[in-house]
Structure formats: structure tokens, C-alpha cells
Amino acid sequence: MSTLPKIDRASILRTPDSCFAQVPDFPYTPHYLDLDGLRIAFIDEGPRDAAPVLLMHGEPAWSFLYRKMIPGLLAAGHRVLAPDLVGFGRSDKPSCDGDYSYGNHVQWMVAWMEALDLTGITLFCQDWGSLIGLRMLTHSPQRFDRVALANGGLPDGRMPIPGPLRGWQKFAKWSPWFPISRLVSMGCVGTLSAAEQAAYDAPFPDRRYKRGARIFPSLIPTRLDDPQSANNIAAWDILKEWHKPFLTLFSDRDPMTRGADRPFIKFVPGAANQPHAYTRQAGHFLQEDKGPELALKLNTWIASGSK
Questions:
Q1: Cα pseudo-dihedral 250, 254, 256, 261, rounded to 10
Q2: What is the per-residue pLDDT across 172-181, written as a single tens digit (0 to 9) for each?
Q3: SS3 147
Q4: Is 254 a residue of the active site?
Q5: Which terminal Cβ of the chain has fewer Cβ within 10 Å, N or C?
Q6: Known active-site residue 252
Q7: 9-303: CATH homologous superfamily?
Q8: Mean pLDDT of the chain
Q9: In 3-state terms, what secondary structure has residue 248?
């Protein structure tokens, strides 16, 4: 297993199971992996001998975000895995700010992937799920067969940062008000029900549990002297030699990531001749707005024999 970050394990918070008692339309039994005292939660459904489809969520969501995609993927016979990032969902939440770093998140999820010995992976990633998921890919490219990137990217400090993202970073850092479900709702074209909003709030019973969600925006590499800038530049060098299929499935109503698909289409060899598409009438969290449609696109793409 990969080397694990050294963190203050005495300060780890764990959201009580009772907080998830009323989560709607998410009947999947959570699985848990202990990484030296840090518990990672994940959904693992479908045949264990099927090639895995790995669904990586972003900020400030959790695997609940994929509830509209999972049924369609399972119906197609896939094994579907959706982990909760550290600090989110049912996964443990360090309460020390210093324990959260981009590098730590990559190490945790690489260790999780290696512990499950996942191979033949189809990666679907969005938002921070792409910043971490693409680093998992470039760490262990032999474990992945294909990638579908949706409303995400791999910033390395060399790229211009859109104004809405800078505004989001300032809000997360300074606002005394950080309403998780409201933030998710603002990233959707459709309307979340009261029960769905409660499900997004469920992992965070009080402000102490929100440290990871608060810190994530500030971890995005926006300058060349960022701690993870060099690692992301190195990851881009690997992606520029990636010849396996690479598909972009962005939405049409996301100012945060508008245009972020273009560098991948231009520089990743595996993106050539793929059926890149824009999902219409969908916001930043396109899994909420168009989950079944995305699952169908992913199933069709995998079934086409893209290798």
C-alpha cells in the first residue's frame, strides 16, 4: 500500500450513522476501509468480477451525488464504486486544518484503490473528483482503461483561473455562512427537494465537520509556487502520452469549468475521435440535473468497445 499521510488521528471526527437515516433514493450499503485509523466509506455495487466504473465526487458533495447514475450503470452489468472523499459523506473528517492538503487526498485515494486492487477501471470524475481522480490515474495508469471527465480539470498553476472560481475561493475562506445543501443547489439547474437538501447536509452535523469542505477551494493550484503545482505538471506530462480513451462530458451551464475540456481534447491523444458532448440544461452538478442521461452516455461509450 502507498505511504499514508501523517495526521492527528486523535482529532478525527466521524459523522454518526443516525445522520444518514433519512437519505432518500440511496439504498446502497456502505462499505468501509480503514487506512491506519482513518475510515474511508464507499459504495460497491454490482458483480465483483465485472470491470469497475469508479465515480469520483467533488466539493461539497458525497457519493449521494451519483444516485441518479448508479441504477443505469448497474442495469448495464457494471461494478460501480463511489467513494466518499476524506472529510465528506460517511468518510472520517479530520478536524485539524493542517491535515487537509491536496497531496494527502491523493495519497488517501491511491491507497484506497490499491487496497481494493482495482484494475480495468473506467473513471468518471467531476469537480474535485477530477483533481484527485486524474492524479490517481497518472499515479497508476495501468489500472485504468478509460476516462470520462465532466465539469472538472487538472489545474497546475500555469492556466488562467476563471473569475467565478476565485470568487468561490474567497467565499469559502471568509464567509461565516457555509450552507452545504444551498451551495449544491446553486450548482444545479433543477430544484432539490427538501429531503435531497437534507441528505447533502447530513454528513455535517455542525461546523466542525465542514473543515474539509471549507478548505478544498483553497487547495486548487492557481500559481506555480503552489505545493502541488509541480506534481500536476508532471501529471499533465503523463496525460499527454495517454492513448487510452478519454471522453469529455461537460454541461452547458457551468461558469466554473467552462472551456476546461479544451486542453484535454487538444493535448490528450486518447481524446481524439471520441464522442465528446455537452449535456444541455445542466449546471455544475450535472449528475443531479441529468444523471440517467449521463449513465446512458457512459454505458453506450463503454459498450462501443472504446479501448
A1: 20
A2: 999 999 999 9
A3: strand
A4: yes
A5: C
A6: no
A7: Alpha/Beta hydrolase fold, catalytic domain (3.40.50.1820)
A8: 96
A9: strand
